[in-house]
Design brief:
This protein has about 190 residues and is mostly beta strands. The protein folds into three domains: about 60 residues, SH3 type barrels (Roll); about 60 residues, OB fold (Dihydrolipoamide Acetyltransferase, E2P), CATH 2.40.50.140; about 60 residues, Beta Barrel (OB fold (Dihydrolipoamide Acetyltransferase, E2P)). The protein has a five-stranded antiparallel sheet. Strands 14-13-12-15-16 form a five-stranded antiparallel sheet, with no helix packed on it. A four-stranded antiparallel sheet has the order 2-3-4-5, with no helix packed on it. The longest helix has 4 residues.
Amino acid sequence: MISTKDFRKGRRISIDGEPLVILDFQHQKVARGGATVKTKLRNLKSGSIFEKTFNGGENFKEPDIADRMMQFLYENGGEYTFMDSQDFEQYMLTAEALGDDRLYLKENEEYSLLIFEGNPLSLDLPASVVLQVVQSDPAVKGDSVSNITKPAKLETGADVKVPLFIKEGDFVKVDTRTGEYLERVRK
């Protein structure tokens, strides 16, 4: 059981059988009343975000959620197939469930999948990934006055703004949370 005193950002709880994650919380103590905890929660099934206030000392169940490493196999018609390397069971996530995370998936790479009651909920990407530039316009001489960027298309289909010195075939590190270029990587 999880008590309100155990709340922290990222903690998962279950209310009415729904898996939730705590995005933010604040303990509040009123002069003559009991303590309350104001929280901001996200439903892991639907993705909806809402606020809820609890009385201090309330207890919650821990949801039946597992983080499992899965290998990304392929995409077919908007469905992304992952395979558990342990038991070779396959799971599918839709493009809607993945959102922009699908732009950073490389075939045969391992990713952490969130599984609730045997069904995949979401994908937990690493903070950054290394991808190859497949299309980028050449730099124009004289454009290097300041920190100018140009668009580049990566091997997964993602579009990223990169510095002028990046050319096709280069490998770049991209932040998966913001979609921004971090650095060029030598391979």
